[in-house]
Amino acid sequence: MIRDRVTRLADDPGTKKRSRAPSPCCKRFAPLSHRERDVLKLLPLGYTNAEIARHLSVGVETVKTHLGRGYEKLGARNRAEAIALFLERERAIEQLREATEGTPLSDMLEQYLAWAEGESSPR
Fold first, then answer.
1. Lowest pLDDT segment from 67-71, 75-79, 119-123
2. Measuring CA to CA, which residue among 98, 101, 96, 123 is closest to residue 112?
3. What is the pTM for the complete model shown?
4. In this predicted model, what pLDDT tens digit does every residue of 21-51 receive, in sequence order?
5. SS3 state of residue 18
6. Quick check: 53 pLDDT over 70?
7. Residue 106 to residues 20, 33, 119, 121, Cα–Cα distance (Å)
8. Vertex 63: Cα angle to 65 and 74 (nearest 5)
9. φ, ψ of residue 85 in degrees (nearest 5)
10. Best CA proximity match to 38, nearest among 28, 52, 50, 27
11. CATH numeric code, 21-116
């Protein structure tokens, strides 16, 4: 029965048009690279792209690339929205750390965060 439903959905032309993109909530917690995080951390301080580039010793185009990827992962449409979503994400992660401190979930959370930031491979 389930197999029939899946087959029908797969064959339905309307299904193929649907986006396979993650929901906005999931996007906000998509793994950010170290450089995307470095660049996004400087936005709330009011840095321009040129100032970020100088601070991180990279080119302005590189900053724009990291910002674009960061915006996409956060689901942000502009700089102000990226700042708000990034800070919201960082607060949520800190709250998770506090809530799981001293529990087995704490280790799991840290392993996930390390993996999400590219520091280790998933276990």
1. 119-123
2. 123
3. 0.66
4. 444 444 555 678 889 999 999 999 999 999 9
5. coil
6. yes
7. 31, 22, 17, 17
8. 60
9. -70, -40
10. 52
11. 1.10.10.10
Cα distances (Å, whole numbers) of residue 89 to 35, 51, 57, 73, 108:
16, 24, 26, 11, 18
Residue 68 in tokens: 């674009």
CA distance 76 to 3: 37
Band of pLDDT at residue 6, cut at 50, 70 and 90: very low
Buried/exposed code over 96-105 (b: 16+ C-beta within 10 A; e: otherwise): eeeeeeeeee
- As given in the structure block, the two tokens for residue 113 are 């965060």
Residue 64 CB partners (closer than 8 Å, separation 6+)? 49
Residue 79 one-letter amino acid: R
**Angle subtended at Cα 32 by Cα 80 and Cα 55, rounded to the nearest 5 degrees:** 65
**Cβ neighbours, 10 Å, residue 37:** 17
DSSP assignment of 54-101? HHHT--HHHHHHHHHHHHHHHT-SSHHHHHHHHHHHHHHHHHHHHHHT
